[in-house]
């Protein structure tokens, strides 16, 4: 569906929007406040206004209450699927390194992450 995302501007934008709309839909159907998720979190625009379209990241979000970040990078060099946690300024960043064929798995992991952020913020 998005196989030409690196050469087609429209396909790239559609893929970015697919991640964001999937999270929005998940939040709506699970009664989570979508306004708590800053999307995109990482700036993907150069100073001159040129968009970086290398899929690093293709999607990013930060949960405002927990401060935790999720980033998705599409990378052909990864062996299938990889998820890495790292500390970013005292907050947890979950980075999913995926191949395009792992899109549905990544969306499920994004939803699980979003649900976990909401449950953590309820406890605070």
Structure description:
With 124 residues, the protein is α+β, with helices and mostly antiparallel strands. The protein has one domain (9-123). It contains 2 helices and 5 strands; from the N terminus they run H-E-E-E-E-E-H. The chain has helices spanning 9-29, 103-123; strands spanning 37-38, 59-63, 69-74, 81-88, 91-98. Strands 1-2-3-5-4 form a 5-stranded mixed sheet. Strand 2 (59-63) and strand 3 (69-74) form a beta hairpin. It is globular. The mean pLDDT is 93.
Strand order of the largest sheet: 1-2-3-5-4
Per DSSP, the total helix count is 2
Count of discrete domains: 1
Instruction: Label the overall shape.
Output: globular
Which value, in Å, is the CA radius of gyration? 14 Å
As a percent range, the share of strand residues is 15-25%
Gist of the model:
This protein has helices at 9-29, 103-123, and strands at residues 37-38, 59-63, 69-74, 81-88, 91-98.
List the helices and strands and how they pair.
Layout (H helix, E strand, L loop, with lengths): L8 H21 L7 E2 L20 E5 L5 E6 L6 E8 L2 E8 L4 H21 L1
Parallel strand pairs: 3-5
Antiparallel strand pairs: 1-2, 2-3, 4-5
Helix pairs in contact: 1-2
Keywords:
alpha+beta; 2 helices; about 120 residues; 5 strands; about 25% strand; single chain
């Amino acid at each position: 569906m998005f196989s030409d995302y690196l050469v087609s501007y429209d396909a790239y934008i559609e893929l970015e929007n697919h991640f964001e709309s999937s999270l929005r839909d998940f939040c709506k159907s699970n009664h989570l406040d979508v306004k708590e998720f800053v999307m995109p979190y990482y700036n993907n625009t150069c100073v001159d206004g040129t968009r970086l379209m290398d899929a690093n990241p293709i999607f990013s979000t930060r949960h405002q209450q927990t401060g935790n970040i999720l980033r998705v990078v599409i990378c052909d060099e990864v062996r299938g699927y990889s998820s890495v946690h790292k500390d970013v300024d005292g907050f947890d960043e979950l980075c999913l390194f995926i191949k395009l064929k792992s899109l549905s798995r990544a969306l499920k992991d994004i939803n699980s992450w979003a649900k976990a952020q909401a449950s953590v913020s309820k406890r605070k």
